[in-house]
Amino acid sequence: MNAAGLRHERRLLLRRLALSAPAMATLAVFLLVPLGIMLLVSFLQPGDYGGVKWGEYSLEAYVNFLYERDLDDSLVFNTDYLQIFQRSFWLSVLTTAGCLLVGFPTALYLALQSERRRNLLLLLVTVPFWTNLLVRVYAWILLLRNGGLVDSGLEALGLVHGGDLNVLYTDVAVVIGLLYTFLPFMVLPIYTSLEKLDWRLVEAAYDLGATRRQALRRIIVPLAMPGIAAGTILVFIPSLGNYIIPELLGGGKALMIGNLIQLQFGTAHNWPLGAALSFALLAFVLLAMLVYSLRFKGAAAGGHP
Amino acid sequence: MSSAIGIERICMEFGEPGQGVRALDDVSLDIRANEFFTLLGPSGCGKTTLLRLIAGFEQPSAGTIRLYGEAMQDLPPFRRPVNTVFQSYALFPHMSVAQNIAFGLEMRGLPRAEIDATVQRMLALVKLPDVGRRRADQLSGGQQQRIALARALANQPKVLLLDESLSALDQKLRKDMQMELKRLQHETGITFIFVTHDQEEALTMSDRIAVMDKGRVLQVGTPSEIYESPVNRTVAAFIGETNFLAADAADAGLRLGDGQVLQAPTPLRGAVTLAIRPERVHLDPAGELEGVVEDVVYVGTDTVYHLNVAGQGGFRVRRQNHDGAVAAHAPGERLRLRVPTAAIRVLAE
Amino acid sequence: MNPRNPLWRFTGVRPLAWLFFAFLYVPIVVLVALSFNGGQSATLWESFSLKWYAVVANDPEIVRAAKNSLLVATFATLIATALATLAALGMRGPAHRGRTLMSGVLSLPLLVPEIVTAVATLMFFAFIGLKLSLFTILIAHVVFCIPFAYLPIRARLEGMDPRLAEAAADLYASPWRTFWRVTLPLLAPGMLSGAMLAFIISMDDFVITYFVAGAGATTLPVYIFSSIRMGISPKINAISSIILLISILFVALSYYIGQRKR
What we know:
The complex is a heterotrimer of chains A (about 300), B (about 350) and C (about 260). Chain A is mainly alpha-helical. Chain A has helices at about 5-40, 60-65, 80-110, 115-130, 135-145, 150-155, 170-195, 200-205, 210-225, 225-240, 245-250, 255-265, 270-300, and strands at about 45, 50-55, 65-70, 75. In chain A, α3 packs antiparallel against α10. The radius of gyration of chain A is 25 Å and the shape is globular. Chain C is built from 11 helices and no strands. Chain B: It comes from Pseudomonas mangiferae.
């Protein structure tokens, strides 16, 4: 390309940058700067009645994470917060596993339907995306509470006798809620992978003597791997930081990270600790995304993992 | 005849100067007014790049493009009085057929009545008078092709550019459109520049052909010039079927590897290549050349004999099956061939 | 591939799929059914009645919350869609290092956990001393609506044949007219679905709104959350059902439009 051509290219590039500028500026000012301030706040002293003492720096929030200050100001090892992180982690793992268990067969079922039927079923999978999460979680309170539909239903079937179900406000209820919320996030990416799958490959496997189960394990699952990975990320990450579901179905007893963070901005009046916890969560999420994109980005673009 | 498009020493480089890919390397061409001119070559030879330079979608790295004598390489595409028929047609999917055809006229600000009349005239010209209200994507491939033509021709361009315009059509439709294009060019008197990789299409339709390869123009000439007198091996190999024989040119004639001698006038001396078209060779017991049959292939209209001549295999001889007679010769048989002097093209290298 | 061929029947796939759909829809059906309950209990069926819908319609607090939600969602959608459209147009052309960074920033709101965005935004407003109000909600909503509006627009732009703009230029349209007559009309469906997504996401958001909502600036989800915390009631059933049905209507409509386009 000659000099005039290069100048022309550069002018074009500048014009494009100018077009993107308003959105970039909005996101920079109202998201990147707040995240920076959050990091700053995590190194400040909490204010007495919420808020922070601007300008008074301290590592207290990070110390608080693992230790508790005793009455005589000595540090005592305290695993309360760590345990909540651990619980959040395991509940999210459980949710992801459950989603995979139900989500993969569902995606496979969808991929094997005729086109008209598939479109309709796909619509049914996506409806929850468009409907209010809070409302749908509320429906589970109606179902799971003592004397609710599940309770009385089981009793009517004679499966339980007397007494209460006592499921609501437990980890079980939280996992049910998380499963319910995130299942579509597992089904859709797996379905997308399977839809692109060349079924002649499976026919070739049959031709070479594979049974259905072998074809599934050796051909279909490996080729759906990018979708499975994407689904896993899409379920695990938002489960981990979820706030509404443990709040409503865990009833403030089965806490997760999200609730712990919220507490610091509510009754606990400890913004720096809340900021530090948020930062830890964010760092974990970004790390997971980094690992995912290094491992699977090529595969998503159509190559092999 | 005056020159419609003059291309003078055009170079086109993609990427950084000096180290990029050379798509066009010092190309010069002179395309005359009212001719059907074809750029022919394998994919990646630079023919489409050249067309896009004429249309104005790309800027040349160096060189001049003239339209009726006036340099226009710095004009943007929307100021150039040339129009393009795209390979994929590029009909606007959100507009009706009539709106598509009217688009260029509207952009030039012509009065509504004139636009409407022109649209009707164009629809009639491409023999689709009733599709004006339909949406472009409701038409078949062949119909879209005609509408793309109508949209370009509506502007009465000085030059019409056609980029592999028939390649998406099936064989039958393609033959019809070839005739149709010739007719339209005749009726409108517009200069057509046609890009294709199909040599048969080029030979059938063109007044003149430029054969391109690796960013260069190898030969410019009428179809018969290109076919009968290819300037080098690449052109000969690309246009039609050709047998190549290595030979040594001396005063006594063209001596092949096994000592057989053919006669054809040439100023060249030393190692040469003989290019001989399969249909110009005859099986004849009195022929001057001998070969051994390797294979006999029946292809409907013809029978093709593959022979080993002078130690080189794969020498093809094509014989028409006009009397319904099939393979009278079997592999292993020795045959004599008559090669008319005029059928031998002596190439350097 | 013929779906009817027994070769493609994998054991257990169909029952699990139907379990999935049942799991997805039973709670919704139960909720809507209970909203027509005439009794005082949220879960014990007594008789069919529309009385709780009347209660909802006449509750000034709910009406105000709904108005707030609509107001915020409308403006957030308009602003986010405009910003996203410009950004998508700016992201055309050959890739460069800045573009990778910019697309990273554009998808950041999807990556950062909601609760983190919520508290970070809250601290930001505290830091700059901006009083919490409907306006702070609007700002927060614009931020997380941008990627939802951007993705469909970008996809539409990427699927657009670059030859169409070249064809317009070839037919004497200046770059400006090419934009208005060809690019923008072709982009419109993408902008529409982007705007719809942004609107729904804004209408539904609870977590971020909850943190940056000032006193009196209650949106519908925040109202519902506070009500649930005070205990379940047939009134919540009714307002929840209304929200669900509006969403489902919205989806059906967009599905219908999508089908008709084809």
